[in-house]
Amino acid sequence: MNSLLSAQGVLLVGAAACLLPAGNRLRAAVGLVSQAVATVLVLLVALPVALGGTPLEGTLAWAHPVGTLRIRLDALGAFFLAWSLPMTLLGSVYAVGYLRRHFDTERHVGVHYALLNMTALSFILVYTADHALVFLLGWEIAALAAWLLVIWDYPNQKVRFAGFNYLVSTHIGLIFLVAAFMILYAHSASWDLGSFGRWLQENPGTERNLVFLLLLASFGLKSAFFPFHSWLPRAHAAAPAHVSALMSGVIHKAGLYALVRFILLIGRPDEWMGWFLIGFSLLSAVIGALYTVGQRDLKRLLGYSSTENVGIAGLGFGVGCLGLAWGDPALTAVGFAGGLLHVLNHAFFKCQLFYAAGAVYQSTHTVDVERLGGLARLMPLTAIAFLLGGLAISALPPLNGFASEFLIYSGLFTGQPIAPWAKVALAGTAAGLAFVGAVSALSITRAFGVVFLGSPRDASIERPREASAWMLAPTLLHAAGVVVLGVAPVLGLALVQSAAGLALAALPSSGGDLLAPLRELSATLSRIGAISAVLAVAIAAVWWLRARFGRQHVLRHVTWGCGYTAPNARMQYTGSSFSWDFSRHFRWLMVLLRRQRAPQGPFPTDAYLVADCVDAVERRLFSAIKRSDDSAAEISRNLREDDPRLAFAGALLAIVVIAGLVALSGGWLQ
């Protein structure tokens, strides 16, 4: 526990030092060194616990009414800490290359690195908290630090609006969380999460159901589940690439951590909770995947895919909940292990994809898919990194996305004796997950093909070049993790096994090896990964041999264009045309906007067609706010403030409400 406290002290001192009057290079160096030291200190204690070691506990006396602050690091918290801080450090390294143009200006880059330190500090607080107030403190530090990181480019009005949108959304989630904690404190008379858990386990019923729904709404807002996701695409499009990567891959995983933590506190959840979580997650996965298909902004596309992937992880947790409700150890272990492994895998490939998108932006100053093209020849390493991340997010072997989704499929196609209708429902969920995978493959094919293949579409974009080593190193390290965890999934399962085993504590012991099904699936995954890796290496070898020893003088010519002998870049597929045939089947769900000017005359020069997919939830929300504002303004104009009847009516209504509450306080409100 001393290492964790030392790591927090190092991060705080480093954050303060980043604010001192010094050069930007020195500030960045201080931030990197302090994060590196803190990461080592945390890994020294987190890795042994994550791999099955004894949990760590500690207390800190505090004044009334807070009381004793309890800190506890078990396998679940250790699993999240084991990769959250290293990935934050890699994001800070990437920031050196991304923000280097500001190092010789008056911009205070030290503030940015101080906020990255505070983000890392919030992880330690949230993942080790056994006290509600410590948990809320870490939760709020993460939210405020992420908001300030998002609005780095604050002179831009769109960036400020995206940051405000995120700030409001995350604090609405905080309201739900505080409401749930108030209910739990009122019944347990303690701020300890363990006391919350005892009350939840001993008091099933309406109030526990309400607490579950409040927590799910809060954690859904934090992790950007549909329909609580509308802040996410705006924030990711506005933030620097490394901030988008950390938000999607690391910061908002705190919501999934909290979801699993409180499911474990409940112990044996009601069966409806598992089904509700599965339905909620499947809806998020499907909608998130569909919205990736129609995006022009590459970072918005990746933002919507985060909504898709938290839904996939939620499916695993829902399967685990059903296993707990049915008393099925195998289903419990597979469900939670699949969900947690997907959280880890998503962190790897999503950070990698955002880093690649950031390299594209740095080189071309745009992430508009319709303006880009042909970047693979000029940015080969970035193209390879994006392709690997895209294959992983599409759950194709031998990359890591396949391993976690394989576990979730194994839970959905469980061979355990359950009701026929439940088997049908789980099979239907598996079909939905397969649809999500197909749509994800379509969107990534579209993005990679349009951005990196073909020819440049916009002559005004300057000739791009490969990103700097500061940006490439974190990208390629994540790519290496994607490959290693896919070829050797046993490494990822070793990290999640103990955390998934915590859920089995709520089940009566049968005397056998409760994690045996997980080990069998691990062996199967390892064989699949090895075979796929051999095939991938063989294909790469054939490609290299063909390029090295094949025909040297290949005759190249333009693609046949229906007899047209002077093709140009505008005759390529655009992103919109690539996905139009698919998108038009979902017009009822995806709001497709078209701006166009039809060609006129025999030689038109100013015709254009611009198609974009906007967020239906956000569009309807803003429309409702506008109507409400107009209605309130109309009522205000019609009311006379000096009319005594208005004051009398308001006082009478208040008296009636107070009297009603007093009367009810003797009944169910007591």
Automatic annotation (TrEMBL):
<feature type="transmembrane region" description="Helical">
    <location>
        <begin position="378"/>
        <end position="396"/>
    </location>
</feature>
<feature type="transmembrane region" description="Helical">
    <location>
        <begin position="6"/>
        <end position="24"/>
    </location>
</feature>
<feature type="transmembrane region" description="Helical">
    <location>
        <begin position="272"/>
        <end position="293"/>
    </location>
</feature>
<keyword id="KW-0472">Membrane</keyword>
<feature type="domain" description="NADH:quinone oxidoreductase/Mrp antiporter transmembrane">
    <location>
        <begin position="129"/>
        <end position="419"/>
    </location>
</feature>
<keyword id="KW-0812">Transmembrane</keyword>
<feature type="transmembrane region" description="Helical">
    <location>
        <begin position="475"/>
        <end position="505"/>
    </location>
</feature>
<feature type="transmembrane region" description="Helical">
    <location>
        <begin position="210"/>
        <end position="232"/>
    </location>
</feature>
<keyword id="KW-1003">Cell membrane</keyword>
<feature type="transmembrane region" description="Helical">
    <location>
        <begin position="244"/>
        <end position="266"/>
    </location>
</feature>
<feature type="transmembrane region" description="Helical">
    <location>
        <begin position="164"/>
        <end position="190"/>
    </location>
</feature>
<dbReference type="InterPro" id="IPR003918">
    <property type="entry name" value="NADH_UbQ_OxRdtase"/>
</dbReference>
<feature type="transmembrane region" description="Helical">
    <location>
        <begin position="430"/>
        <end position="454"/>
    </location>
</feature>
<dbReference type="GO" id="GO:0016491">
    <property type="term" value="F:oxidoreductase activity"/>
</dbReference>
<dbReference type="GO" id="GO:0042773">
    <property type="term" value="P:ATP synthesis coupled electron transport"/>
</dbReference>
<dbReference type="Pfam" id="PF00361">
    <property type="entry name" value="Proton_antipo_M"/>
</dbReference>
<protein>
    <submittedName>
        <fullName>Hydrogenase-4 component B</fullName>
        <ecNumber>1.-.-.-</ecNumber>
    </submittedName>
</protein>
<feature type="transmembrane region" description="Helical">
    <location>
        <begin position="76"/>
        <end position="97"/>
    </location>
</feature>
<feature type="transmembrane region" description="Helical">
    <location>
        <begin position="36"/>
        <end position="56"/>
    </location>
</feature>
<dbReference type="InterPro" id="IPR001750">
    <property type="entry name" value="ND/Mrp_TM"/>
</dbReference>
<dbReference type="GO" id="GO:0005886">
    <property type="term" value="C:plasma membrane"/>
</dbReference>
<keyword id="KW-1133">Transmembrane helix</keyword>
<keyword id="KW-0560">Oxidoreductase</keyword>
<dbReference type="GO" id="GO:0008137">
    <property type="term" value="F:NADH dehydrogenase (ubiquinone) activity"/>
</dbReference>
<feature type="transmembrane region" description="Helical">
    <location>
        <begin position="133"/>
        <end position="152"/>
    </location>
</feature>
<dbReference type="InterPro" id="IPR052175">
    <property type="entry name" value="ComplexI-like_HydComp"/>
</dbReference>
<feature type="transmembrane region" description="Helical">
    <location>
        <begin position="109"/>
        <end position="127"/>
    </location>
</feature>
<feature type="transmembrane region" description="Helical">
    <location>
        <begin position="646"/>
        <end position="669"/>
    </location>
</feature>
<feature type="transmembrane region" description="Helical">
    <location>
        <begin position="525"/>
        <end position="545"/>
    </location>
</feature>
